[in-house]
Amino acid sequence: MGDVQGCLREFEILLERINFSSTDQLWLAGDLINRGPHSLEVLRLVYSMDAQVEVVLGNHELHFLAIYFGGHSRNRSDTFDTLLAAPDVEQLANWLCQQKMLHHDSSLKCTMTHAGIPHIWSLKRARALASEVEAVIGGDNAQVSAKEFFAGLYGNEPNCWESGLTGLPRYRLLANYFTRMRLVNSAGCLDFSHKGAIGDAPTGWVPWFNLVPRSTDKRSAMKLLFGHWAALEGVTDRDDVIALDTGCVWGRYLTAYCLETAALTTVQSVS
Known about the structure:
Elements: H1 8-17, E1 26-28, H2 39-48, E2 53-55, H3 59-70, H4 81-84, H5 89-96, E3 102-105, E4 110-113, H6 123-137, H7 146-151, H8 167-180, E5 183-184, E6 190-191, E7 206-207, E8 223-226, E9 241-243, E10 253-257, E11 264-268
Parallel strand pairs: 1-2, 4-8, 8-9
Antiparallel strand pairs: 3-4, 5-6, 5-7, 10-11
């Protein structure tokens, strides 16, 4: 399921519409919170479903954690004041710190991150790099603490991957690939200025998924699932790269994608 962003009622309706039951598993592509009206309630609901959900962190979860653990200020457009003031905020924040940057299921041949995986990394490499960031956020990195990471999270530099990067610049860039990526160039560098339609992209920059090699073997093809880019309106023109953010918080739809059948189910925004 794509970016919920605090849209509780649509989330509940969509779960009903797909007949979500105790035997099902739900993958959530990040950005559960912020922008919409009910961040706290959405996060509590997902937390209560812990055994049945796979969550990857989005840029809005990282933003919330940077405020909570890193000492940053809220933006005017943020809508998680109620979450930050909740009596269980510490429990929810610590739970988020245990979630993934990338989720992979070899039996389903599906991989999910919030923003995608750049063409410069193999899936094996992406999984290893995602694990590095997860270790930092979870407090298991000896060089950079979670508090240091969240305090230094914000920034667009460096914007191009080099394997020799170390410390905070390395983990900031990795987090930006997994949670903020939209346009890249042939070298895999990130452009952070463009958030709109593909047709308006600056010269030399293309959607990251345009450069990801297509599988020639449909039997073993891996599907990449991502959210983050509402302006795509769910369209990538590829059946192996699935865009799940369909702009519910902007008055459009919340979308669920069935991993077994590739069926799409949508709910119109009511917020």
